[in-house]
Amino acid sequence: AADAFVFGTGTHWDSWSSELQRFLEAATAAEATSLWLGKPAAVVVSEHSTGGKGVLSRLQGVLVTLGCSVSPLGGLVVSRAALLAAKTDPAAARDFWGLADLGVVAHNLAEAARVNRPGAKPALPRWRTWPVDRRDFASRWLT
Question: Residue 41's closest CA among 77, 8, 19?
Fold first, then answer.
């Protein structure tokens, strides 16, 4: 049995892949069973330029309905547009999700799975965070 789940999908017409949709439809028979209940899940979505955040949020909602938990910072969108922007102007893209943030998602998923085990030491999770723009988050960039 799995201790945790990682789901990955591209963005296809503002949704996840048809293969993932078929999987979720088949998995519904096991909703709220020990297969899912309380097990942490992480989600990674890729996108060309738009739509990925909606896919991420909706997929996390489906997983919670199946019975999973979602750890802090347990999902992200890898965007082609954001990766290109980071190459062009790293300072302007410092608050965009990037490939390095995958390590935070993986660590927090592993921590959530670890603390679910009986007798886990330390008992509390040691969450990690990705960098957050706390100075310039309200700046006007469209003028």
Answer: 8
